């Protein structure tokens, strides 16, 4: 591999000058920097980041842990995070837990072994965060992108409870009284959407019915298709359904199309996350918007601040981004 010394010999300059030029130091004239860059390219020079890390105590890498690599939403978040970090000179290491606590621990251990400067984490269970607290207390800069860990670890997330509450309230205001929910996350420590749904119903004087809450046992379009079949088979089926994500809602729309159930005349459907496919569904899907770019920007900015705070003097923050409703044909008001 080419070294700084090789570039210096080819250009007739000092190693220190070459090093400064490759770091775009304003101390080196532009024409000299260009000469050095051309020589580096000709020699196929690659910076030795391991050596840099020994000096700066930073590897310029950040670990990003997702829960589901197949989720269109999380793919968009990963893209936004990677772009934000790249603009700041960082590389993203990506891992997924796939909802498995052992896989989550393994991914965190890998990040630590690779000596990442910080971590951005979607925890698989929002109620079991002790292992993440220990990492944060131990000095690992970390920001959670979901969950409620107030006072222990920084959290920057969408207020999912508020999103579910507003979506359910919209359905109530549209004239619906029997509103179903397709969400099994409350069984796995993530109750925010279910709590928001119940809160809106009770505020309207409607007692939530356990029969109308279905665990889809997964997050895919197929899981949504099967969940709608169960909901609509009830003796008194719902006239509106809120789903925990848009993929579940898309499966529900497909089931309705197959069975001749008109949306929104027979049943209104409200999704969550506002992924790209929602707008182009067979019936354009209303959804709770997930501002992935805004969340990524805020989370990365906070993480870089924590990385720079080597004395760990900053107290953890909890930031909940308030959601907006994107209303489309699938929830048009009932006559």
TrEMBL record:
<keyword id="KW-0804">Transcription</keyword>
<dbReference type="InterPro" id="IPR010982">
    <property type="entry name" value="Lambda_DNA-bd_dom_sf"/>
</dbReference>
<dbReference type="Pfam" id="PF00356">
    <property type="entry name" value="LacI"/>
</dbReference>
<protein>
    <submittedName>
        <fullName>LacI family transcriptional regulator</fullName>
    </submittedName>
</protein>
<dbReference type="GO" id="GO:0000976">
    <property type="term" value="F:transcription cis-regulatory region binding"/>
</dbReference>
<feature type="domain" description="HTH lacI-type">
    <location>
        <begin position="2"/>
        <end position="56"/>
    </location>
</feature>
<keyword id="KW-0238">DNA-binding</keyword>
<dbReference type="InterPro" id="IPR028082">
    <property type="entry name" value="Peripla_BP_I"/>
</dbReference>
<dbReference type="Pfam" id="PF13377">
    <property type="entry name" value="Peripla_BP_3"/>
</dbReference>
<keyword id="KW-0805">Transcription regulation</keyword>
<dbReference type="GO" id="GO:0003700">
    <property type="term" value="F:DNA-binding transcription factor activity"/>
</dbReference>
<dbReference type="InterPro" id="IPR000843">
    <property type="entry name" value="HTH_LacI"/>
</dbReference>
<dbReference type="InterPro" id="IPR046335">
    <property type="entry name" value="LacI/GalR-like_sensor"/>
</dbReference>
